[in-house]
Amino acid sequence: MKRLRLVVLLSLISVAALAQENKSFMWKAKVKHGSILIGGNLDAAIQKTTRELNQPLGPEEGTNILANLNFKGGYFLIHDLAIGLDLGISHESHMVSVEGAKQTFRRTYLLGGPFTRYYLDSGLFGELALKGGLLNFSTGAKTDIAQGTLGVGYAIFVNEKIAVEPMLSFRYTREWQGNDANVSFGPMIGVGIQAYLWRRTSQTIKEAL
After folding, report:
1. How many other CB atoms are there within 10 angstroms of residue 201's CB atom?
2. How far apart are CA 76 and CA 81, in angstroms?
3. Distance from C-alpha of 186 to C-alpha of 164, rounded to nearest angstrom
4. Which tens digit of pLDDT belongs to each residue from 19-75?
5. What is the dihedral of CA 198, 199, 202, 208, to 10 degrees?
6. How buried is residue 159: exposed, middle or buried, by Cβ count under 10 Å (0-12/13-18/19+)?
């Protein structure tokens, strides 16, 4: 009987110790200030566009199929609020109808700029990113590009440091040359993987305060 009590007691102590060790694996998304965010995401969309650049017959409307690979690095200034740098490689396939026939034009370009994120305890976060770049055409002409993205995502932590993040965003892209511009906008769906270095849960933060 005493041996049974001893086994039960040891089991309870082991469970309590394991629960203490695993506090950092809670699904709370609160991230401590000073933590670092490193990762990236892939997203894609079909968007309507209006093109004015190099269109002698007037503005041209068409459809863009976009695929973007983004690399992010950020720093948490305060709990749950991160700012950092977002670098994106974009591949674009533009389809238009010319005299009843469909034509497709493809190109790839690189954009970069700042981003900011804020997290709720539930794992939901909002993100704003502003990127810019310069596109060189084979003719030697240069076109400025600016892009803004506003999105909402959800961080699903598979362990203390790594999260899988589905995200829905709205993206606006404008490229211009003088008074003429090409504009595309619309929603994008994507998924990312982020690493949170020195991440702490909300419970750990509350105990430290």
Report:
1. 21
2. 5
3. 23
4. 343 333 444 567 888 899 999 999 888 877 776 555 655 567 777 788 889 999 999
5. 0
6. exposed
